[in-house]
Every structure is written in C-alpha cells, then in structure tokens.
Design goal:
Number of domains: 1
Order of helices and strands: EHEEHHEHH
Strand content: 15-25%
Structural class: alpha/beta
Helix content: 40-55%
CATH topology: Rossmann fold
Distance between the termini: 28 Å
CATH superfamily: P-loop containing nucleotide triphosphate hydrolases
Shape: globular
Number of helices: 5
Oligomer: single chain
CATH class: Alpha Beta
Number of strands: 4
Amino acid sequence: AWGRQTTILILPTVALRGNMIGRLDKVALKHHTWFPGSTKSAPLVLVSAEAACTERFLEYANRLCDRQCLDRIVIDECHLTITVGTYRRSMSQLA
C-alpha cells in the first residue's frame, strides 16, 4: 500500500544530506540515515552516493526487496551521474 513501504534516497553530497535531514525533521517525517552495519528501516532511508555503491548497502537493499518492502530508489541531483562521473566513480556507478 502507498506510504507503507520504503523509499531509498541517494544523496550525492554531504551538504544535500544535511539540508534534507533538516527539512525532514522540520515536517516530522520519519527517516533513517543508512551507514555500514545499519539494519534499521524507515519510510525514507537516506544514503550517500558512495555508500550506495557498497556491497553492504546492496545487501541491505536486497533484504528490503526480499521482504517486498522497497518501493523505489530516488537519486537526488541525478544529472550528476553524468556530469561528475569522470571524477566521482560512485556517481558513474549509479548511472
């Protein structure tokens, strides 16, 4: 059902993550910032571009899929997958 599953939001910069967390807290939207070893889920899971490319994160996302809990994956500032891919490997991997 809509609103009961998990959205993963990949944020390419620390500044965007900080801004997003502030905005989410302001409207009291439940979220979790993923870090290696994290197993917690929330309606919205924030993850850095670098962390999203790791084996541990892929395992985490696959567990959500296996439980049919993953609704969508969103890449904020997705144009960066093309424009900075030559010097930020993680961004080109997301493309």
